[in-house]
TrEMBL record, chain A:
PANTHER family for this protein: METHYLCOBAMIDE:COM METHYLTRANSFERASE MTBA
Annotated ranges, domain Uroporphyrinogen decarboxylase (URO-D): 165-353
Protein name in UniProt: Uroporphyrinogen decarboxylase
UniProt record, GO biological process: porphyrin-containing compound biosynthetic process
InterPro entries: Methanogen_methyltrans, UROD/MetE-like_sf, Uroporphyrinogen_deCOase
Automatic annotation (TrEMBL), chain B:
Cell inner membrane as UniProt keyword: no
Keywords of this entry: Cobalt, Metal-binding, Methyltransferase, Transferase
GO molecular function, one term: metal ion binding
Pfam family, one: B12-binding
Example of a GO cellular component annotation carried by this entry: cytosol
Keyword Ribonucleoprotein included in the entry's annotation: no
UniProt xrefs under InterPro entries: Cbl-bd_cap (IPR003759), Cobalamin-bd (IPR006158), Cobalamin-bd_sf (IPR036724), Met_Synthase/Corrinoid (IPR050554), Meth_synthase_dom (IPR036594)
Name of the protein in question: 5-methyltetrahydrofolate--homocysteine methyltransferase
Ranges of residues in domain B12-binding: 88-207
Length: 360, 207
């Protein structure tokens, strides 16, 4: 087969059509890129997508916070950390020196009454929620480079927990499911209305990428029944809308979400991304059980890369890629992202070995 | 006469008001608080924990059961102090230095409290000094949690520091495995929150 460009390759892989080689994508911690720049491995300001010739790129174009105009407001700091109140009214603490999931200090929305008063009236599809310019720039760069371009952003679960916190949201799913259903519906409608505005103004992307972390180590946050009842209708609505525009949908989830996967497939996802090995996700098992229905991106244990264990990287790739490339629907990606402990050469080895094994 | 079965069921179903009502009625009726705890509330939390381990219950059910348990404990706490009831053990738990993630640590704390342990929640970003504060407050077991591969190595320092100090260190978190626990010489590892309770039961031989 003649070499394909990234746009053709990813587009075909999401439909399980034959390709020249598996496509490649990756996410890097910001401190990883900085570390490599400081070492002189990357020129300052390098775009990793361009440098590593990745096949797709994405643009996070929406701000779904309750107050999209509010910048994070610093409320406390010490030598190591800074505490902010964000546009959702949530108080979060982050490290100054490195990337990490923030500590959840406080949330202004804890139940239905707070939602009705402090959130719902403000979640309207106004143009100030959309980064038109950013979207236009990445879309144009992808078109120029022949890369697959995805609109990226959160779906409903990742929209709801930032306003009320995981604990309040999960308790709400058990104690007041109608409230959670309503929040999910409001956010799914918001996303669709904003898409209509953006795509009318700037044109469509090649696909949609949803971030939707619904699991942790060994289990999903919710039961499959709760997913089906409270979250899946919103997923189906947004995915159906994307499909009506001819856009395939990639869904990212951290954690162990295999029990939800039958319903995520029923909701219409075209590709599952991340598949964290350390959380219990097993690429080969998922490929066996779902590989005919959806494409898969990731599922390759990042720990050998993080530990700069080159034989371990090769072992990880050799035991999986020859199998999972079988239905043309596998895209090379670590099982989450490349952390700052990974040396440039280790990622390069992961990439080159993966591509070598992923040729057809 | 307290209906312990009704109390147990109310905790499991997360019926906070029902738990408070049953416990208040039991207190008013002069019920032995040890029986309220040992025949009603603690077995309920252990049962929901076991359901969690079998994937018959998920985090939402765990959280509302803990909330219901807390409603009963709030009524019992003044009486527990006065009764001289012996603690099952004191555990100091915290997310390790460099890591601000607390959901997993909070779940373990909830399950330990539900199982009857005294829990000192040290919060996040805990260095050895912070863990030592927990020991000074009487903890005989330290629980270390981490989310990130980059913060996990600090557990090795904690384990090394407390070795031979009469304190056991147990570990858990997304990147942590039994193999890693063995490698650094930790006293135990658990895959999930309910497993952490059973692990500490076994270390303190309270089960």
């Amino acid at each position: 087969m003649e070499p394909l460009c990234g746009r053709e390759r990813v587009g075909r892989q999401l439909k399980h059509l034959p390709v020249d080689r598996i496509a490649v994508s990756e996410e890097f911690w910001s401190y990883t890129i900085r570390h490599w720049e400081e070492q002189g491995k990357l020129p300052p300001g390098t775009d990793a997508v361009e440098h590593f010739k990745l096949d797709l790129d994405k643009c996070w174009a929406f701000n779904l916070r309750i107050d999209p105009e509010m910048a994070d407001r610093l409320v406390a700091e010490d030598e190591e950390t800074q505490t902010f109140v964000d546009g959702n009214g949530a108080t979060l603490r982050r490290y100054r020196s490195h990337a990490s999931t923030p500590e959840h200090i406080n949330f202004s929305v804890v139940d239905r009454n707070d939602w009705e008063e402090k959130a719902k009236p403000f979640l309207t599809p106004t143009a100030n929620r959309i980064d038109f310019e950013g979207y236009r720039a990445v879309r144009r760069a992808c078109a120029d480079a022949g890369r697959f371009f995805l609109w990226s952003g959160v779906n409903v679960f990742e929209s709801m927990h930032p306003i009320c916190g995981h604990e309040n949201l999960l308790m709400g799913m058990a104690l007041d499911p109608e409230w959670v259903s309503e929040m999910a519906e409001v956010y799914s409608d918001l996303i669709i209305h904003l898409w209509e505005t953006l795509f009318a103004a700037e044109g469509k992307p090649d696909g949609i990428w949803f971030y939707e972390d619904m699991g942790f180590k060994g289990r999903p946050f919710m039961s499959p029944e709760m997913y089906r009842e409270l979250i899946m209708p919103a997923h189906r609505k947004t995915i159906d809308f994307a499909h009506s525009l001819g856009l395939p949908v990639v869904m990212h989830s951290c954690g162990f979400v295999e029990p939800l996967l039958p319903y995520m497939v029923e909701a219409g996802i075209d590709c599952l991304q991340a598949m964290e090995v350390k959380a219990g996700m097993d690429l080969l098992r998922i490929y066996r059980d779902f590989g005919e229905k959806i494409a898969l991106m990731g599922g390759l244990d990042v720990r050998p890369v993080a530990n700069n264990d080159l034989p371990g990287i090769r072992r990880e790739l050799e035991t999986r890629i020859p199998v999972v490339k079988g239905r043309n629907g596998f895209i090379l990606h670590s099982d989450h992202s490349i952390p700052e402990s990974a040396e440039y050469e280790s990622y390069r080895y992961f990439l080159e070995t993966g591509l070598e094994l992923g040729r057809y | 006469m307290t209906d312990f079965e009704a109390l147990r069921a109310a905790v499991i179903k997360g019926k906070r008001n029902d738990v408070a009502a049953i416990v208040q009625a039991a207190i008013d009726g002069g019920e032995d608080i040890n029986l309220i705890l040992d025949r009603g509330m603690i077995p309920a939390m252990r049962e929901i924990g076991d359901k969690f381990s079998r994937n018959e219950a998920y985090v939402p059910e765990l959280l509302i059961a803990a909330r219901a348990m807390q409603a009963g404990l709030a009524l019992l706490e003044p009486l527990i102090a006065a009764s001289g009831r012996k603690s099952m053990g004191k555990v100091a738990i915290g997310t390790v230095k460099g890591d601000l993630h607390d959901i997993g640590k909070n779940l373990v704390a909830i399950m330990l409290k539900g199982a009857g342990y005294d829990v000192i929640d040290l919060g996040v970003n805990c260095d050895i000094t912070k863990y030592e504060e927990g020991v000074k407050q009487g903890a005989t077991i330290i629980g270390c949690s981490s989310l990130l591969t980059t913060t996990m190595p600090y557990m090795k320092e904690v384990v090394a520091y407390f070795k031979d100090k009469g304190v056991k260190v147990v570990i858990g978190g997304a990147p942590v495995t039994q193999a890693y626990a063995d490698e650094i010489g930790a006293d135990g590892y658990s895959e999930d929150a309910n497993g952490a309770v059973k692990l500490i039961d076994s270390l303190l031989k309270t089960a």
